[in-house]
């Protein structure tokens, strides 16, 4: 178990948590990506929900994402405390007690799953429940601390939201939903490994077996290139399904050409040069990876709008 008690007893200072502390406990930046991709999955589905049902569905998916974030912060408080990137999170900073984070996570998990089932269908609720379990238990409690493949397998948790959105509308899984899942699943490793290249020391101090720690930066650079190349057919395949169209395909081609070029540059980078410029190229690739995912899903959304106007789609 994550040893949060010893940490809090030694360094935490008394603090009355405010509303903002609880908001940060839910990982709002991660939640925003979950909400956006789930919304896209819901809106591009061939079945339209009533606006009130759609709003409720996205609200409860967001609460489920927040529940996952709270449970992750509860379990990972010891790791977060020694990493520069995460030390200011509510639990390691002593703003929210570990027990409170656990209670919030469990409560929101139950509320989000039950209410999503009532608002849409049981399959969507089951997928949300599995996503929370996968992130909190399979990834946070097991994979993250035991294998350098943590972010590869664990990436499934972040890939489920568009599938959940699709299932909320249709009640079933389709090729389109699977390809949206696959797009995020294959995108996750190069995205996080780019971060790990310039945050290696943080993961080393925390004892997290990230690929940069277990196999070194050069091996990580090669993995980024390989997974980026594997990502390309998934992205193009999604653009060729019923949720795609000429616009989506053009966006996918442009984004993936640029992404592959960035991965190639990272792979061919000399470590001495990277250290000298403080991993500028790796940081740029990481930032672009966020834009890459957003623009892919935005293209799906625009294509759906064009299709409804009779001028988009295949």
TrEMBL record:
The way this protein sits in the membrane is described as: Multi-pass membrane protein
Which is an annotated Pfam family here?
Answer: UbiA
**Cellular compartments annotated:** Cell membrane
Provide the reaction this enzyme catalyses. Answer: heme b + (2E,6E)-farnesyl diphosphate + H2O = Fe(II)-heme o + diphosphate
Name the keywords, alphabetized.
Cell membrane, Heme biosynthesis, Membrane, Transferase, Transmembrane, Transmembrane helix
* Residues annotated as transmembrane: 30-49, 55-75, 96-116, 122-139, 151-173, 179-199, 220-241, 247-267, 288-306
Q: What class of enzyme is it?
A: transferase
Q: Carries keyword Cell membrane?
A: yes
**Source species, domain of life:** Bacteria
Q: Does the keyword Transferase apply?
A: yes
Q: So, what pathway does this thing act in?
A: Porphyrin-containing compound metabolism; heme O biosynthesis; heme O from protoheme: step 1/1
User: Might you give the EC number(s) for this enzyme?
Assistant: 2.5.1.141
Gene3D superfamilies hit by this protein: UbiA prenyltransferase (1.10.357.140)
- Similarity field: Belongs to the UbiA prenyltransferase family. Protoheme IX farnesyltransferase subfamily.
Q: How does it assemble?
A: Interacts with CtaA.
The further comment given in this record reads: Carbon 2 of the heme B porphyrin ring is defined according to the Fischer nomenclature.
Q: Which HAMAP family match?
A: CyoE_CtaB
- Say what the protein does: Converts heme B (protoheme IX) to heme O by substitution of the vinyl group on carbon 2 of heme B porphyrin ring with a hydroxyethyl farnesyl side group.
Alphabetical list of NCBIfam families matching this protein: cyoE_ctaB, PRK04375.1-2
Kindly provide the name given to this protein in its UniProt entry.
Answer: Protoheme IX farnesyltransferase
């Amino acid at each position: 178990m994550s040893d949060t008690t010893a940490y809090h007893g030694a360094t935490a200072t008394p603090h009355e948590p405010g509303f903002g502390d609880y908001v940060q406990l839910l990982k709002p930046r991660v939640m925003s990506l979950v909400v956006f991709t789930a919304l896209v999955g819901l809106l591009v589905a061939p079945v339209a929900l009533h606006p009130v049902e759609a709003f409720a569905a996205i609200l409860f998916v967001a609460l489920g994402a927040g529940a996952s974030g709270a449970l992750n912060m509860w379990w990972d408080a010891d790791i977060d405390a020694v990493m520069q990137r995460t030390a200011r999170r509510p639990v390691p900073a002593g703003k929210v007690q570990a027990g409170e984070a656990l209670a919030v996570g469990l409560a929101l998990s139950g509320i989000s799953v039950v209410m999503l089932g009532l608002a849409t269908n049981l399959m969507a609720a089951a997928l949300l429940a599995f996503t929370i379990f996968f992130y909190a238990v399979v990834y946070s409690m097991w994979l993250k601390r035991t294998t350098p493949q943590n972010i590869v397998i664990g990436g499934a948790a972040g890939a489920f939201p568009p599938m959940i959105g699709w299932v909320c509308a249709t009640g079933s899984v389709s090729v389109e939903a699977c390809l949206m899942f696959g797009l995020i699943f294959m995108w996750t490793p190069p995205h996080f490994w780019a971060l790990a290249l310039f945050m290696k020391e943080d993961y080393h101090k925390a004892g997290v077996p990230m690929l940069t720690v277990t196999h070194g930066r050069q091996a990580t650079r090669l993995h980024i290139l390989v997974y980026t190349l594997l990502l390309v057919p998934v992205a193009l395949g999604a653009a060729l399904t019923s949720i795609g169209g000429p616009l989506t395909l053009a966006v996918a081609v442009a984004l993936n050409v640029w992404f592959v070029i960035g991965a190639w540059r990272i792979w061919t980078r000399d470590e001495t040069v990277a250290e000298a410029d403080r991993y500028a190229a790796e940081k740029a690739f990481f930032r672009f990876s966020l834009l890459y995912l957003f623009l892919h899903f935005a293209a799906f959304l625009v294509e759906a709008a064009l299709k409804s106007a009779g001028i988009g789609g295949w």
